[in-house]
Amino acid sequence: MKVSSRRPLVAANWKMNGSKSLAKQLENALVQADLRHVDVVICPPFPYLSCFEHDLKLGAQNVSEFASGAHTGEISTAILQEFSVKYVIVGHSERRTEHHENNELVASKALVALEAGLIPIVCIGESESVRDSGELFSFLAAQLDAVMDKLGITRCQDIVLAYEPIWAIGTGKTASPEQAQEVHQFIRAHIGKQDKHVAASMRILYGGSVKGSNAADLFGQQDVDGGLIGGASLDPDDFLKICQAAK
Ligand code: PEP
Q: What's the N-to-C CA distance of the chain in angstroms?
């Protein structure tokens, strides 16, 4: 049986999807449910942040590394905080690919978020070709090292990590619970080389085609502390099942 002192967290990443009416539906579903066992964070597109009226935890899908100024299309920590945002996803593979965000920039964004008092959800994960090449662990170690170098290990205790194998994102091809556990265990051990306490207390989420039907098996793994949920977070019933599976 799983024994963990870490509080589970389930985050909804709507990506560039959703609507005002979906915000209402999801909010209604969440406030009526008993979710005292789990932190639930909703990360909708920016304008929909203001659609959530109840005391739900809100997250952003991105943040600028700059504080303010001439950065058209970007958003700052200060603006996010005016909308009660507490979490921010950084380093999602879609931003790494489409917006050329490298390990260095992702680490800088995590630092900017932390310094403003936001909790960064730092995403890492490999493509299928990296996994097939046998470079999985060195690839993930480089992604982790960039963050640990920039933040310093002590500050890492205030971040959340999300392991999201790119081949599992939006593909319906979920990592098996054993594959997820193998990588989460590696991540914790790698961080533990610098500080065992930080490693033991850090929440590591799994992301990649999590659904109501597979969440319990994934979240039941010793080092899996919840999930970052894309597609299934657009279906309030399924998302609720996922949140309920995070026991
Ligand atoms: C994601 O985008 O973070 C994600 C995990 O997507 P999906 O759940 O759709 O695979």
A: 12
